[in-house]
Amino acid sequence: MFPNHHFIGMHWIWWLILAAAILLLFFDIIPHRSQSTPEEDALEILKRRYARGEIEREEYEERKAAITDNNH
């Protein structure tokens, strides 16, 4: 029936594990970790708020200085 007897015993479990791993990677189920730091995220949010006109230039400069001072 099976000339090499590869499907007898526990060998089939490795094929299931391999198929599951490929499906996880293919469907992008594994979450990606952010490469950025929280300080960079805060600065990006601040830039967007300033660009939308939600805050004035003075407030933008003060908050930017506070964010970058905490970084160092």
From TrEMBL:
Entry keyword annotation includes Transmembrane: yes
Coiled coil stretches, renumbered: 43-70
SHOCT domain ranges (all copies): 41-67
Keywords recorded for this protein, A-Z: Coiled coil, Membrane, Transmembrane, Transmembrane helix
Transmembrane segments: 12-30
Top-level lineage group: Bacteria
InterPro entries: SHOCT
Protein name according to UniProt: SHOCT domain-containing protein
